[in-house]
Amino acid sequence: MFPMLIAFFRKNNRNDSTRKSPQFLQMFIDKETIRQGVIYGVLFLLFVIAGIISPEFLTANNLTNVLRQSAALGIVSVGQTLVMITGGFDLSVTAVMQLVTVIIAEYTLGRNELILPAVLLTLFIGLIIGLLNGVIITKQHASPFMVTLAIAFVITGARLAYTRGTPSGLLPDGLRPLSQSEILGIPFSIVLYLSLTLIISIILQRTTFGRRLYATGANYKASRLTGVNVNTIKLSAYALSGLLAALAGLVLAAYVGYIDQWLGGGYDLDSVAAAAIGGVSLSGGKGGVWGTLAGVLLIRMLMNFVIVVGLSIEYQFVIRGLVVIAAVALYSFRSKD
Predict the structure, then answer these.
(1) pTM of the prediction?
(2) CATH number given to 39-336
(3) CA spacing 20 to 30 A to 158: which of 45, 72, 105, 288?
């Protein structure tokens, strides 16, 4: 009889632990938190390895440069994250950044007193381009990949036609503090990026708009049937992406300090890769901006490492390719989970 009682209690205890353990763990941690922890762990490991291989990488001056270089990519990646959560992509962000550089140089001609209207103009144009992307995608039910790529071609072609391949004008010196100034020893551009990340994170996690953004990406049809205005949600995401791309263009122009109409080349795919590495699903409905932050730092750190160890600039393209492959591999792995 005693063996039967022991077996009975063991069975009940095992069932209780099976039922309670996951619920208990979920009170403190979830899969997304674990994944982000792993990403930051990998980032720290690569940071240490890079420092061992090249001590110059760990100098204060170089780390400050890495942060400044991360700001523009980070800002545009925040907008890309919003779009990807809805299940889309925005490949027009690089074209917007390049257009911003030309506009602010042509409009101000280097005069500081015209900075404010020039900045407002470029942000407005970025917003309009984002809205245009959103309208075409939602009203025509078109592929975000194809629409944003086509818009990027149109913007680039119009810019080249206007400048005839050689933009004129000067960037005003008053724009430089956007990247070069510091707050308590931290570059202002990175403070701006972190502030935007915090604000968007709160919106995603604590507001109705954020919840509907995830719902739209996770199941478009179900969200629409439950009363969510999915078109408005998508339109808002693309509008914010265009606005943030314009802001990123201003930050990058302030960092470089001269007019270059090819500035920010590759940021479209870099931002997608940063978001994907950070945990944003390529099919939508998952991820967040804090994971994207890790992806941004990882990409910029690898790009900087190529220069610090003395490799030619061409190797940055190899790094970009490997990062995109890693992002796709991570998405495939998560899809099987």
Answers:
(1) 0.86
(2) 1.10.3470
(3) 72
